[in-house]
Design brief:
By secondary structure, the chain is of the alpha+beta class. It has two domains: 247 residues, FAD/NAD(P)-binding domain (3-Layer(bba) Sandwich), CATH 3.50.50.60; 152 residues, Helicase, Ruva Protein, domain 3, CATH 1.10.8.50. The chain has 14 helices and 20 strands. Strands 1, 2, 7, 8, 9, 10 and 19 form a seven-stranded mixed beta sheet that branches. Strands 12-17-16-13-14-15 form a six-stranded antiparallel beta sheet. Strands 3-6-5 form a three-stranded antiparallel beta sheet. The longest helix has 15 residues. Bound molecules: flavin-adenine dinucleotide.
Length: 416
Amino acid sequence: MDYDVIVVGAGAAGLMAAGRAAQMGRNVLLIEKMEKPGRKIRISGKGRCNLTNTRSHEEFLEKVRTGREFFGPAFRNLDNHQTVRFFRKQGLQLEVERGERVFPRSGKAWDVANTLAGWCKDLGVKLEVRTSAEEIVLLGGKIYGVTIRNRGGFQRRIECSNVILCTGGASYPATGSTGDGYTIAHALGHKIVDIRPALVPLEGAPAIVQQLNGLQLKNVGLRLEIDGEIAAEEFGEMDFGSRGLEGAVILRVSRDAVDALIDGRQVRLLLDLKPALDRETLLERMGRERAALPEVARFGELVRKLAPKQLVEPLAVAAGVRSDMRMHRVEEAAFGKLADALKCFALTVSDYRPFEEAVVTAGGVSTDEVDPQTMQSRIVPGLYFAGELLDVDADTGGYNMQIAFSTGYLAGELRK
Ligand SMILES: Cc1cc2nc3c(=O)[nH]c(=O)nc-3n(C[C@H](O)[C@H](O)[C@H](O)COP(=O)(O)OP(=O)(O)OC[C@H]3O[C@@H](n4cnc5c(N)ncnc54)[C@H](O)[C@@H]3O)c2cc1C
């Protein structure tokens, strides 16, 4: 055998797996199809890489949306606190920010990727870049090797007794995560749970989204409504971009919204633009604003006192009043309707954006056929999985990166 183990994909999971395997005395080859390891790490967290989250185990696991139980043993083997210690030991200074999110103190995601790559190098991992794994070759039902192809088109087979597949998901394919692992795992008999974008911008009715393009809302309450029932509630930032509805609260509800849209259900977002005020208090505030305005003031001027400029027209429409109508002509009931619209501004969600814009891929290699204590395939001995390729995903906040680190670290131990 040329190697004890070939790790396919040098992302967060693959780097962790390769380093851990080498640390345990294995002869390791790490194959990466891009020019550099850790392309996705380098752009993660808006270039700052939110590499984990220091919440308690219980709170952390609550953020894991699929595969929570499956992830438990890997997380206990390398948890969030051990991960922080691991990076600090490698000389990377870290900082904990709002929401217990951990970032490199330098503010550079590159430092995270370079730390992992340097750790692998020091441990003797052989890295081959610009090389794609095409197939895992079996002999008598056991791993025999991996067929690889370099950028020049030259194909060869490398022998090994174990493979750790860490090819990532299908999101942001420009980083190299083009979903190859699904095909490779499927060819070996593994079930692939339908993949779909998660943590992804949503699309609303074009007219309103266009009207609000560029609007950034801070401290809004957002409820996700599916077929008339509230499915989730969030609080935070939301942006109206050219690509649709974005921002932290949208990403957090997007997973459920995408699944509902795929099922053909009705999806709406109900925005609370004044989450700190109940309806009564809001009406009192409105009364004070009205009293302070001159008699000739128009309805739109009142709305402007309560909401950003771009929302004046849509809110006036929701209140059933023209924004240029003089205040003294506005019927009393319209102020109640305006309060309702401020507390519950409804947006219909028509679609979701593609994998190219999704932070994470939901679905993937079914965890039913992978041993959570080892990450080893229950179908092919010697085959291991780690990272986003698996049907495990979490909310934003450093959880997905930790999933990659923990599953990679455990897979790298090559436990039988
Ligand atoms: C824009 C963006 C920002 C994000 N920010 C954060 C964040 O701040 N915090 C967080 O927790 N998560 C974040 N995520 C999610 C997180 O980056 C991923 O969940 C994590 O990187 C997954 O790691 P992975 O190793 O499983 O896959 P990847 O990082 O995708 O790595 C897979 C690697 O395999 C290689 N590969 C694929 N196929 C082959 C093949 N056939 N042969 C050889 N190599 C192959 C790819 O080139 C790639 O390098 C972000 C994601 C995106 C897209």
